[in-house]
Write a structure and sequence with these properties.
By secondary structure, this protein is α+β, with helices and mostly antiparallel strands. The chain is 55% helix and 18% strand. The N and C termini lie far apart (126 Å). This is RRM domain-containing protein.
Length: 174
């Protein structure tokens, strides 16, 4: 099956869809032109709505051609449609096709992003907890050190006092 410049002659790109248009409405709009193999309206993961375009794949190229001739510029739900042959990248999700990777490709990256964000939040929380624990430990050590210094000072002071008293007593005894 020779593809002219990679264009798929039995798959049509349908742009300019109104929000209310779903796959069954799209199917109903194009079925008069021939048997339809597939209808897709890729969803925006954030809104769960289609991105105002879809793809209709006919079993026969001739049917796709007559659908394109008749439906390009036609109105559906008050919006003017743009109907062209679909480029394979748009369907399979190449770099060039702004139009559409398959729906599940978005889902995968969306889930990955969610997992990465969750992981980052978990790591940040762990880091915060570790920093807090280190700070607490540091404060405790400083406090213990101060306590120790006070005790040493007290002991030193007591020793010095005892020493002085002993000297005084010695001098008095002489």
């Amino acid at each position: 099956m020779a593809m002219m410049q990679g264009v798929q002659k039995n798959t049509l790109y349908v742009g300019g869809l109104a929000e209310e248009v779903n796959e069954s409405i799209l199917h109903a709009a194009f079925i008069p032109f021939g048997d339809i193999k597939d209808v897709k309206t890729p969803l925006d993961q954030a809104t769960q709505k289609h991105r105002s375009f879809g793809f209709v794949t006919f079993l026969e190229r001739d049917d796709a051609a007559s659908a394109m001739d008749n439906m390009d510029g036609a109105e559906l739900y008050g919006r003017v449609l743009t109907v062209n042959y679909a480029l394979p990248e748009r369907i399979k999700g190449g770099e060039q096709g702004w139009a559409a990777q398959p729906i599940w490709a978005d889902a995968d990256t969306w889930f990955e992003r969610q997992q990465q964000e969750e992981e980052m939040r978990r790591i940040e929380a762990e880091n915060r907890a570790a920093m807090q624990a280190a700070e607490d430990l540091h404060r405790k050590q400083v406090a213990e050190q101060r306590e120790g210094e006070k005790e040493e000072e007290t002991e030193t002071r007591d020793d010095a006092m005892a020493q002085a008293e002993a000297e005084v007593l010695q001098q008095n005894n002489h």
